[in-house]
Amino acid sequence: MPATPQTPGIVAHRLPPERIAENFADIAPPFTAHEALVAADRCYFCHDAPCVTACPTSIDVPLFIRQIQAGQPEAAARTIFEANILGGMCARVCPTETLCEQACVREAAEGKPVEIGRLQRHATDALMGRGGHPFHRAPPTGRRVAVVGAGPAGLACAHRLAMLGHEVVLMDARAKGGGLNEFGIAAYKTPEGFAQEELDWLLGIGGITVEYGRRLGRDVTLKALVEDFDAVFLGLGLGGVNALDLEGAERDGLRPAVDFIAELRQAADLAAIPVGRRVVVIGGGMTAVDAAVQSRLLGAEEVTIAYRRGREKMGASHHEQDHAASHGVRIVTGAVPVALRGEGGLAEVEFAYVAEGPAGLEESGERFVLRADQLFTAIGQRLGELPEGLATEGGKIRVEGAGRTSLPGVWAGGDCAAGGADLTVTAVAEGRDAAMDIHAALTKT
Q1: CA separation (Å) from 53 to 60, 67, 123?
Q2: Is 46 exposed, middle or buried (0-12, 13-18, 19+ CB in 10 A)?
Q3: Is residue 181 a contact partner of residue 93, using CB atoms and an 8 Å limit?
Q4: For 79-94, b where at least 16 C-beta lie within 10 A, e where not — what string?
Q5: pLDDT at 445
Q6: Which of 12, 156, 177, 290 is the Cys-Cys partner for 274 at CB 3.0 to 4.6 Å?
Q7: What is the reported pLDDT for 207?
Q8: Do 425 and 100 form a contact (C-beta atoms < 8 A)?
Q9: 26-57 pLDDT, tens per residue?
Q10: What is d(CA 303, CA 127) in angstroms, rounded to the nearest whole number?
Q11: Pairing state of beta strands 275-276 and 10-11?
């Protein structure tokens, strides 16, 4: 008998392939040319536009929207890419509702901002679809830079350095690049292999040699990189995950949410990925929401997100919380897991209600139980072991200015560096700015 959403345990093929394809279709389809013009006409083209200030990469939003309005989407794309070379991905995954669109004057006046994200996608898709690359390399400088990590920060840094005339060797521990964009974002946000298409397009600048399967500390040391290259940029991301510190956490059915999301992103057949009938996700950020929503899209009958604090403290935006709720995901706040039960595999999770007190979170004395075949943990990621000599701050690499670390000649950016928000767009800004600082250091007279 074929599986259904009501089939007990963790099984594959809960939904027919055509339903899975529908569920994982592009969440925000591209504008038609007419729709883009209508959306662009809503922009006031503000002087000192707040949307520009709200963008971590400082894209000139009024300019690129005016270029779309004038029927020049490819010129608009160039405006975007000059500030953010991963503008195509950011148009798809940026939390625009808390960044540029939240700052939009239309949002303040009408509660409906200009659709900046979708307009950005309209422009970038137009230029990328044309083929070729919009930028050219400067004359060779004779300098070589190692970039460790082919995620958003590393890619942005490598591209800007190559454009400035430096030779770049880009290394990544995985068998393919993209980092968070390839492995850590919900499949319905970037369908049809866009992350790899964007990576290949970015490498079209030339001057970047890619070496996959090279892990810092295993295949190459930081000491050797410093000796062999004129500068080093670390865009390592956060490779480790925080474990759930409860007895029975080794039971079948428990899994880090990031591993589940990565499997979805690399799967040739989404329907073949097993998911529980009843799924519980521990956490309150974007990873928790992505895991929960995709569990429902795969056919899980009941999905619950449990978060220890209130909704206003969740890392996921209100927009993402509402998106989860619209797909039938239940969100329970002020709850922490205290016990896991089941014979062999997971059967239920016991929670305690908690509230903020003088000493932090304090149990109220009330508890409840959720039945669960599968538990995803999204309780934070960590950097893991670092080479000696790098100062840290809050478990990440300490940086000053545009990503300078405590080691001369070594810069860092993205999720591995202390300070910025863990967003693709923030990582791009940090990688780009570090590249400019590296360039200045290498070319000063």
Answers
A1: 9, 19, 20
A2: middle
A3: yes
A4: bbbebbbbbbbbbbbb
A5: 57
A6: 12
A7: 97
A8: no
A9: 998 899 999 999 999 999 999 999 999 999 99
A10: 40
A11: antiparallel
Note whether 89 and 194 are within 8 A (CB). yes
Could you tell me if 92 and 128 are in contact, meaning their C-beta atoms sit under 8 angstroms apart? Answer: no
Q: Residue 76: phi, psi to the nearest 5?
A: -60, -40
Q: What is the DSSP string of 200-227?
A: HHHGGGS-EEEEES--BTTTB-HHHHHH
Which residue stretches of 386-443 are H helix? Answer: 424-443
Closest Cα partner for 271 from 298, 301, 302, 249? Answer: 298
Residue type at 232?
V
pLDDT at 192: 86
Question: What tokens does 42 get?
Answer: 């809503």
Count of other CB atoms within 10 angstroms of residue 287: 28
What is the distance, to the nearest Å, from the Cα of residue 130 to the centroid of all Cα atoms in its chain? 26
Compute the Cα dihedral for 51, 52, 56, 57 and give only its sign: positive
Closest CA relative to residue 236, chosen from 190, 170, 315, 162? 170
Model confidence pTM above 0.90:
yes
Instruction: Tell me the two tokens of residue 290.
Output: 């992505």
Do residues 16 and 270 touch, judged by C-beta distance below 8 A?
A: no
Tokens of 347: 């059967």
Nearest to 161 by CA among 424, 426, 413: 413
